[in-house]
Amino acid sequence: MGIHDGHRERLRQRYLRTGLTGFDDLAILELLLCFAIPRRDTNPIAHALLDRFGSLASVLEAPPEELRQVEGIGESAAVLLTLVPAVARQHLIQRSCAGRPLTTTARLSEYLLPRFFGERDEVVWLLCLDAQLRPLDCRLLFRGSVNTTGVSVRKIVQVALGCNATSVVMAHNHPSGMALPSLEDEQTTQSVRQALAAVGIPLADHIIVADGQYYSFAEHDFSL
């Protein structure tokens, strides 16, 4: 066993004993990279990642093409690093309150916020509810700007009708901003509300998410 193999094994055994308690960003990255880079010392590569991106969170949220610009990071390592927040997001989604009546804004946010964990892009989700305010479906509709077009409004209406929704909640994120509505957000909310009202489905809320916080149009007496 070489010196690098011994270091890898010590990292693995330390993790098995204590979890990530006491691990700094460098050690966590070293351990992760061991599974994608089997025959190199991962310490200098982990250093290079932190030098470029600044923190573990920024490394895990970086696009694969930027990760691969770091010497030593190939396709497998880039996939592994980007997979970590994606798996964490799916874990949080599955632990959210599926099937439970979403009768308050707090419950809605608990259900919806995990879907935005680690997202670098602006994304739009549509939550379809039954008459008891239980989720029928929660679907990722758009990746990009929430500023709507006729096509996107039609898609929202089509999904709501297809789910036989009694009401719907729209949610989107501001990846690099604050959980406050822009003028475009307000205009989009009105356009979606009017389109849904035409087919008899209320827009119960539009929630904006940023940095783990949220803004509810319904809580702020916006005309929904």
Q: Can you put this structure into words, describing what you see?
A:
The structure is a single chain. By secondary structure, this protein is α+β, with helices and mostly antiparallel strands. The chain has 9 helices and 5 strands, in the order H-H-H-H-H-H-H-E-E-H-E-H-E-E. It has a 5-stranded mixed beta sheet with strand order 2-1-3-4-5, sandwiched between helices. Strand 3, helix 9 (183-197) and strand 4 (203-210) form a beta-alpha-beta unit. The longest helix is centred in the middle third of the chain and has 21 residues, at 75-95.
- What share of the residues lie within helices? 40-55%
Shape: elongated
Q: Structural class, judged by helices and strands?
A: alpha+beta
Please tally the helical runs, counting DSSP H or I stretches of 4 or more residues: 9
Main sheet summary: 5 strands, mixed
> How are the strands ordered across the major sheet?
2-1-3-4-5
Strand content: 15-25%
Task: List the uncertain runs.
Answer: none
Our measurement of the CA-to-CA distance between the termini, rounded to an integer number of angstroms, reads: 66 Å
